[in-house]
Specification:
6 strands, Lambda Exonuclease, Chain A, 7 helices, alpha/beta
């Protein structure tokens, strides 16, 4: 039976088109993609050009993973923060993959995710962010998605750093909303914009 992938990265790309005018163009920066442009690349499963913020996130996560496996880069300016984040993940399964079959609005889907780390029922996700305020990730689709596809997890912890300070944002299973209404809203949005066929074409699970 055919199934269609649903991932956190797809849902979050859609979610961010709703935050601003998705059709707004960046006239002051012609080289910058609009949120809708980025979403369409994601919907077509095309790579999004790596910007400075994305690269910092990649670099910081790499430092954390090195520290977790006992090969820290102590020469890097973020090494202390990376070591603090890594201390929470010692002994964890890194880059753990999970999936779950479901049906949403009659569409057979395969929910899929790759966790930064999974340890004793706790999912950890590493974030680099230049600024942080409490509750920054409360509306994220990530913890609802990952909790759904990992039934043994009872808690999801975002480990956030700007390269010096480290913050924790924790969500328990009993306070995490279901991912299914979010996916239903996503499918409704695709249909109203005549993009459902494009999704079904591009996100067929092989």
């Amino acid at each position: 039976m055919e199934r269609y992938l649903v991932t956190h990265s797809l849902l979050t790309s859609w979610y961010w088109t709703l935050k601003d005018n998705p059709y707004e163009t960046a006239d002051a920066d012609p080289g910058k993609l609009s949120k809708m442009d980025e979403f369409m690349l994601t919907l077509d499963r095309e790579p999004i050009p790596t910007n400075e913020a994305m690269q910092k996130g990649i670099d910081f996560e790499h430092l954390v993973n090195r520290a977790v496996v006992g090969a820290p880069d102590d020469s890097h300016r973020w090494s202390v923060a990376a070591a603090e984040v890594a201390s929470h993940m010692t002994g964890a399964h890194l880059q753990f993959r999970a999936n779950k079959e479901a049906t949403v609005r009659g569409v057979p889907v395969l929910l899929y995710g790759r966790f930064d780390a999974l340890k004793a029922g706790v999912i950890f996700d590493v974030k680099y962010s230049g600024s942080y305020e409490v509750g920054k990730y409360i509306d994220s689709t990530q913890h609802p998605m990952y909790m759904e596809i990992c039934p043994e997890a009872y808690e999801f912890v975002y480990l956030i750093s700007n390269g010096s300070a480290v913050y924790k944002e924790t969500y328990r299973r009993d306070e995490t909303q279901s991912i299914y209404p979010i996916i239903e809203q996503f499918f409704n949005w695709l249909e109203t914009r005549f993009l459902m066929g494009r999704y079904l074409e591009k996100w067929l699970a092989l």
